[in-house]
Design the sequence.
């Protein structure tokens, strides 16, 4: 993927994409605001969610061991995956062991993060997405562009055409004369998926939360497809990031209030599925939990950046972000788009390419994302912190290995400019002469900067230089201290 500015330059010129995004995000934003306004204690809930997450992350090693013990005690099997390759290998081997060559999947961000579908396809195993939006993305040979609504960039007409053209290649074809009415599209998806639910013997899921106290996993969703995947197949494999752990059921209660209102603007999710191991009478006969690191412990080592691991994947930050609304999710080059992706992806992957280096700059720092976040992640703070890492470089941990990140060459001019500005500001006489020279030559100042400065003036105008500095104006009109006096006297 190209760096964010290049990708965004293409997507922002797509009028249809921008119209789809604007309509969808504004609608979700308004509904969420109304749902949140119903609770007088929303800010206290928000603070409680942040505190629970921080406490859990501080003692994550303890809670993960407890989770493993309770999952195992309940009849499940726990696997540990250090990175994407190991997780894909574990899941592929588990599916092969069943003798099956197809699986149904619950919507899962973490399986997108590790590229599981592609890994299964290489092994001759076909994965069927069962979430409606994920189904649209899969049939359209597309990529998700939103955390909650992966096909947010598609309108109804496009979805109808995708169903007509591609459904038959994946199973039951779309009905004849399919229209773009939402009810008709949903019915076409329902008929297409039903045969897969009834036929598939293996399911793959993620989880929204894992309760260490009992070894219980929780999936919240709005369509019922998750419930079908979690109960009908004989084998269930869940791939979950280690940060999704919560200590107790009492802690879970806080997040089951925060998540629905922040994501779908509902008081309660239509389907909240919970399972603890296996039972002889109901559900899958075998349950496997794959606990994924993939950069999470490296992120945990960063005292500022670790707050990104609080994220509960609600997408509230995307729906209020002016950059996401115009650029769309694909420009972020990651399954995690928007403000949270701009801080999570560079930390999970490391600052290893121009894409990751550019993501912390994919923001205006307006702060709307922080106000919307139900677990109070200070995304602007982390963005500035990551920008500093990009510019300054230094020693960091990437995939468990200490490495040195070299400062990006493109920021050399910026660093030189900042050092020069620091020297001038530390020498009053030089500052005074510079201000007077700039004022007297203001007629010749360009409207746009040359060289590296062009990037700055591509999106903003240079401020007009006043005829005199504030110091000189003050000395002339108020008779105050002149600019020639020492700083300690002038102050």
Sequence:
């Amino acid at each position: 993927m190209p760096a964010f500015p290049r990708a965004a330059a293409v997507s922002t010129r797509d009028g249809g994409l921008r119209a789809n995004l604007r309509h969808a995000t504004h609608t979700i934003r308004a509904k969420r605001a109304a749902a949140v306004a119903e609770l007088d204690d929303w800010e206290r809930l928000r603070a409680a969610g942040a505190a629970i997450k921080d406490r859990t992350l501080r003692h994550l090693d303890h809670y993960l061991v407890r989770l493993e013990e309770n999952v195992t005690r309940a009849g499940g099997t726990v696997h540990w995956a250090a990175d994407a390759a190991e997780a894909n290998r574990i899941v592929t081997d588990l599916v092969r062991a069943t003798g099956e060559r197809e699986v149904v999947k619950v919507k899962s961000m973490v399986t997108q993060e590790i590229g599981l579908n592609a890994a299964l396809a290489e092994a001759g195993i076909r994965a069927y997405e069962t979430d409606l939006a994920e189904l649209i993305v899969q049939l359209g040979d597309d990529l998700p562009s939103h955390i909650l609504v992966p096909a947010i960039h598609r309108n109804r007409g496009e979805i109808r055409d995708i169903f007509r053209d591609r459904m038959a290649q994946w199973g039951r074809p779309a009905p004849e004369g399919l229209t773009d009415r939402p009810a008709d599209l949903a019915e076409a998806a329902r008929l297409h998926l039903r045969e897969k639910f009834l036929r598939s013997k293996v399911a793959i899921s993620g989880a929204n939360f894992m309760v260490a106290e009992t070894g219980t996993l929780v999936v919240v969703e709005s369509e019922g497809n998750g419930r079908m995947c979690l109960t009908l197949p004989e084998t269930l494999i869940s791939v979950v990031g280690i940060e999704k752990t919560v200590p107790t059921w009492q802690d879970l209660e806080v997040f089951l209030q925060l998540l629905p209102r922040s994501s779908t603007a509902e008081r309660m999710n239509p389907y909240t599925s919970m399972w603890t191991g296996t039972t002889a009478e109901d559900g899958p006969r075998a349950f496997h939990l794959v606990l994924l690191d993939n950069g999470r412990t490296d992120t945990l080592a960063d005292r500022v950046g670790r707050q990104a691991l609080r994220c509960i994947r609600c997408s509230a930050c995307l729906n209020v972000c002016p950059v996401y609304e115009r650029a769309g999710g694909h420009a972020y080059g990651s399954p995690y788009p928007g403000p949270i992706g701009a801080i999570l992806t560079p930390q999970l992957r490391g600052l290893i390419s121009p894409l990751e280096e550019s993501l912390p700059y994919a923001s205006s720092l307006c702060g709307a994302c922080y106000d919307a976040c139900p677990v109070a992640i200070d995304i602007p703070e982390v963005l500035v912190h990551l920008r500093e890492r990009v510019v300054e470089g230094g020693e960091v941990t990437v995939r468990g290995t200490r490495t040195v990140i070299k400062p990006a060459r493109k920021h050399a001019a910026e660093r030189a400019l900042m050092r020069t500005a620091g020297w001038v500001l530390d020498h009053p006489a030089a500052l005074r002469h510079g201000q007077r020279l700039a004022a007297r030559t203001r007629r010749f100042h360009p409207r746009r900067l040359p060289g590296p400065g062009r990037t700055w003036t591509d999106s903003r105008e240079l401020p007009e230089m006043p005829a005199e500095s504030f110091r000189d104006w003050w000395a002339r009109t108020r008779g105050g201290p002149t600019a020639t006096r020492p700083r300690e006297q002038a102050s």
